[in-house]
Amino acid sequence: MFQAYGLYGHIQANRVRSVILLMGFVALLHVLLFSLLLIWSALYGGTVEEIVADAARQFRTSWPVAMIAALVWFAIAYFMHQALVRWATGARGISRAEAPQLYNTLENLCISRGIPMPALQIIDTPALNAYASGLREGQYVVAVTRGLVDTLAPDELEAVLAHELTHIRNRDAQLMVIAVIFAGVFAFFGDMIIRMWDFPYGWSPTPRRQRSPVNGGWSTGGDDRDGRFGSGRSRDGGRGAIVVIAIAIAVIMITWGISTLIRFALSRSREFLADAGSAELTKNPDAMVRALRKIEGHARFNVASRMEAFFIENPVSGRLTGLLATHPSIDDRVAALQRYAGAMT
Q1: Is residue 62's pLDDT more than 70?
Q2: At a CB cut-off of 8 Å and minimum separation 6, what does 140 contact?
Q3: Catalytic residue (one of 50, 164, 271, 313)
Q4: What is the rounded CA–CA span in Å between residue 148 and residue 291?
Q5: How do beta strands 210-211 and 218-219 pair?
Q6: How many Å apart are CA 223 and CA 200, to the nearest integer?
Q7: Is 164 a catalytic residue?
Q8: What is the rounded distance in angstroms from the CA atom of residue 173 to the CA atom of residue 301?
Q9: H or E segment at 305?
Q10: CA separation for the pair 59, 248 (Å, rounded)
Q11: CA–CA dist 328, 296 (Å, integer)
């Protein structure tokens, strides 16, 4: 399996992907800002051309706000990502005294490859699952569920821990933190748009404000003598505003969808190599196969969505396939271990 992927190339690719994700986050944040400005401008009515021109003018003066927001979010995510992941998954720290066999197994794996010992955490659920997270040495975490510890044989548990350590070695854990925590703001806005989709019945945008040719002040229309808007563009304002709002919402949803599909694809591509890394660390691919078969169908538990990509098997969505899958199927993973790592199970 290592021949198929190439460990060094995978690590380098993850570093490049991390940089691209961070740059993409900034770019999509500017797209999001412009979309929100379109909606804001459309609330005052006007033709499509007027609304776009107003939004562009506001964007030229407000884009630094998006840069500042990105930097602030990067700082928050960098210092708070461990707490965010722990809150989202329900994991808690566990000591050697509480789980000596689990702790010793992870420590022995780390010593065998000269890997610094990550923090060990446990999730109190009967489901069978595990994950790794962290951005750098000293922040890495390996978490397992109570069900995994109670169900797997010692060599199977060792294989799962080796799988998660491989995610750390390969910078997969770092990549997923960046993909989910740093760029996860788009999922938030996407969810918000979905919840706000049903506008009140009869809603229509207010008329576009126009500068008075007499005193330069703002007015809400042209000649009001007949009780209607005086200019042709104001009469067309409602239709143009609705068009622009629909386009802006579509752009927001597209950015959310793109970020989600990228996150899913990144998760799928890393699992095969982590399974191979487990076989290489333990010299026991059959244990990894048995562990995957026991995990299959028993991985689901109540965890925040968008965190599913962290886990050894999706704990949220079940057996989604194709572009919507966060993980390759267990059958495909077992077949890869049999083909490339010599598993006999």
Answers
A1: yes
A2: 116, 118, 119, 132, 133, 134, 168, 173
A3: 164
A4: 9
A5: antiparallel
A6: 29
A7: yes
A8: 21
A9: none
A10: 14
A11: 12
Structure tokens at 250: 């579509």
Q: What is the largest CA-CA distance in the chain?
A: 88
**Residue 336 Rama label (left phi>0; alpha psi -120 to 50; beta):** alpha
Q: Which amino acid is at 49?
A: E
| pTM for this model (two decimals) | 0.71
Q: Quick count: other Cβ atoms within 10 Å of Cβ 225?
A: 7
Q: Are 230 and 222 in contact (CB under 8 A)?
A: yes
pLDDT tens figures, 104-114: 999 999 998 88
pLDDT at 237: 53
Structure tokens at 197: 């989709």
Query: Do residues 137 and 107 lie in contact, with contact meaning Cβ atoms separated by under 8 Å?
Result: no
Q: What is the pLDDT of residues 313-342, one digit of tens each?
A: 988 765 555 555 668 889 989 998 998 788
CB atoms within 10 A of CB 289: 24
pLDDT band at 265 (very low <50, low <70, confident <90, very high): low
Residue with tokens 């209607």: 228
Q: Are 328 and 272 in contact (CB under 8 A)?
A: yes
Q: What is the 3-state secondary structure (H, E, C) of 104-164?
A: HHHHHHHHHHCCCCCEEEEECCCCCCEEEECCCCCCCEEEEEHHHHHHCCHHHHHHHHHHH
Q: Which contacts qualify for 98-107: CB closer than 8 Å, 24 or more apart? A: 99/149, 101/154, 102/144, 102/149, 102/157, 102/161, 105/154, 105/157, 105/158, 105/161, 106/142, 106/161, 106/165
Cα distance between residue 345 and residue 340, in whole Å? 13
C-alpha angle with apex 130: 126 to 133, nearest 5 degrees?
140
